[in-house]
C-alpha cells in the first residue's frame, strides 16, 4: 500500500491535507470546520465517557518496560519493585479478555521497538464526537507514538478531527465527561496550557463547555485523579484535587465517590466505564470496587499491577473509539 501526501484540497469550506487510506479512500487530516458546526462522525466517536463501549484502541505490550519518567514508576524503583515482562504480558491478556467478554471489539496498535510506553494508547490521541484528535507527547521516548496512531486512524477510515500544533498535550488529561461537557487538565509538563487552550477553542466553537484545570505534575495526568464510572458518577481523589474541581463537577450534576490519596497513587481512579452500569477497575483499587458495587455497578477487576507500577493502568492503556451516544 502506498500513501501519497496530496496537495491541500478544499473540503466543506476549509483547506485540509489528506492521505490515501489502506482501503483506498481519501482521508482528510482535518475534518474540523474553523467556525464550528463540524458534522458528527457517522460510525466512530464518543459523546461521553460512559456510553456503551463498542470499539476500543489498546496499545501493544510487545516492547513495554518501566521508565522512571513519572512519580509512580519512580516509587516502584525506590521501594525495590522489579519489572517482570511475563507477568505484565499475562495481566495484559487478562485485561483484553475482559473487554471481549464485555462485547467490546479490541483494536491493537502495531508495535514499534523504539517505543517502550506505546502500551499507553490513551495519550497519543483523543476521541471526540467528530473524530480523533492527534495529540503531542512530552517525553522524548514517547514522541514517536503519534506515527502508528495516525496510521491506524487512516487505515481504519476513522475521521481525524484535527492535529494539535500548539505544544504537547496528552490524552490522559482529556475527558469527554458527558454530552456538551469536556475537561482537560494540565500540569505544565505532560500537557501545557497553550495546547489545552487550542483544544478548548475547538470545542467551544462546536458549542461545548470545556473546563480547564491546572494541577501539580506529581499527579502525571488528570486520569490519575479522577475518572467517570457511570452517568453522572465519578471517582475523584478529593484529597489531591482543588475544591473548585469537585464543586464544578457537582454543579454539572456529577456525583463524586471519593478515594484516598494512597489509592490514587496506586492508580485507583484509572478506570474505564464500559456502559450499561459496568466498569473496569484495577484489582488493587479495593475501596473503589466496594463503592462501585454498593452503587449497583458490575465491576470487572483485572490485576494490572505489573503494568500499573510503570505509571499507567486500564484507562491509560485504552482509547475509546466508539461508544453508544447518550445525547438526548
Fold and architecture overview:
It is a single chain. This protein is an alpha/beta fold and 328 residues long. It has one domain (25-32, 41-323): L-arginine/glycine Amidinotransferase, Chain A (5-stranded Propeller). It contains eight helices and 19 strands. The chain has a three-stranded mixed beta sheet with strand order 6-5-19, covered by helices on one side. It has a three-stranded mixed beta sheet with strand order 7-8-9, covered by helices on one side. The longest helix is centred in the first third of the chain and has 17 residues, at 85-101. The N and C termini lie far apart (41 Å). The model is unreliable at 1-16 (pLDDT under 50).
Oligomeric state: single chain
User: What Rg, in angstroms, do the CA atoms define?
Assistant: 19 Å
CATH homologous superfamily descriptor = L-arginine/glycine Amidinotransferase, Chain A
Class computed from helices, strands and strand pairing: alpha/beta
What is the CATH architecture assignment? 5-stranded Propeller
Write down the CATH topology: L-arginine/glycine Amidinotransferase, Chain A
Roughly what fraction of the amino acids lie in strands? 15-25%
> Share of helix among residues?
10-25%
**Shape from CA axes?**
globular
What is the count of DSSP helices, taking H or I runs of 4+ residues? 8
What number of structural domains do the residues give? 1
Task: Describe the main β-sheet briefly.
Answer: 3 strands, mixed
Q: What does the average pLDDT come to? A: 92
